[in-house]
Amino acid sequence: MNWRPDTMTQTLGLIGSGMIGGALARLAVAAGLNVVLSNSRGPETLAELVAELGEHARAATAAEAAQAGDLVVATVPLKAYDRLPATVLAGKTVIDTMNYYPDRDGHLADLDAGTLTSSALVQRHLAGSHVVKAFNNIDFHRLFTLARPAGASDRAALPIAGDDEAAKARVARLLDALGYDAVDIGALAESWRSEPGTPVYVEPYFPARRPEGTSQEEAFRWFLDTPGVPVPADRVKELADTAVRA
């Protein structure tokens, strides 16, 4: 890939290095960025991924990744949002990839009542940071495989949301470096437009629905073998605009 990165972003810190975090780390290294990875189990558990990524990657604690990153990605289960190191992240732009899944996260009253979006909840915890919602509406496999250089005819777009215009601009530049156009869908109060169950969430990037009656193994093989569909910026905007909040 070797696309020119945002010159303001030389190091991407990752708090969480699972499926989405791993895909973002691979895209970032391919774009010429340094990455500092962390997870809840300790830096030593990331040795294999760091070895795969090469000299531009290292493992650290969450606080160290937060400190090192020019931009920091929070990509942990939402139930762990209040463990993000708020003091270290003060003043930084934090990319929130997290979605609310009550079956996994437990029930959070503000989200169940619709008084806050999940990203607004994260922003409340990270009061000194600039939270931008991004990378939450696409699965990890297509996030990696659909990346394309700027100007490519089959380039896909992803929605972003945030309250700080400068922070959103920085995240949009990162998306561009990683291989995506960015579509601004508004403030964090509007970030529900890309959450699970909305028209722009996951399905538009697939050519078809998963076949019914398949085993778990067959379903996973279909998931890996099915090529992604590039969704252009105007279509992402249209889908986000048509979302209706439950």
Describe this structure in words.
By secondary structure, the protein is an alpha/beta fold. The chain has one domain: Rossmann fold (3-Layer(aba) Sandwich). It contains 11 helices and 8 strands. It has an 8-stranded mixed beta sheet, sandwiched between helices. Strand 2, helix 2 (47-53) and strand 3 (57-59) form a beta-alpha-beta unit. The longest helix has 14 residues, at 165-178. It is globular and about 45 Å long. The model has no long low-confidence stretch (mean pLDDT 94).
How many strands?
8
Whole-angstrom Rg: 17 Å
Architecture (CATH level 2) name: 3-Layer(aba) Sandwich
Helix content: 25-40%
CATH superfamily: NAD(P)-binding Rossmann-like Domain
Question: Strand content of the residues, in percent?
Answer: 5-15%
CATH class: Alpha Beta
Order of helices and strands: EHEHEHEHEHHHEHEHEHH
Taken together, the total number of domains comes to 1
How many H/I helices? 11
Q: How is the largest sheet built, in terms of strand order?
A: 3-2-1-4-5-6-7-8
Alpha-carbon distance between the two ends: 40 Å
- CATH topology descriptor: Rossmann fold
Shape: globular
Mean pLDDT: 94
Which terms summarize this structure?
about 35% helix, single chain, alpha/beta, about 15% strand, about 250 residues, Rossmann fold
Task: List the SSEs and their pairings.
Layout: E1 11-15, H1 19-30, E2 34-38, H2 47-53, E3 57-59, H3 62-68, E4 71-74, H4 86-89, E5 93-96, H5 102-105, H6 109-113, H7 118-125, E6 130-133, H8 140-145, E7 157-162, H9 165-178, E8 181-184, H10 216-225, H11 233-241
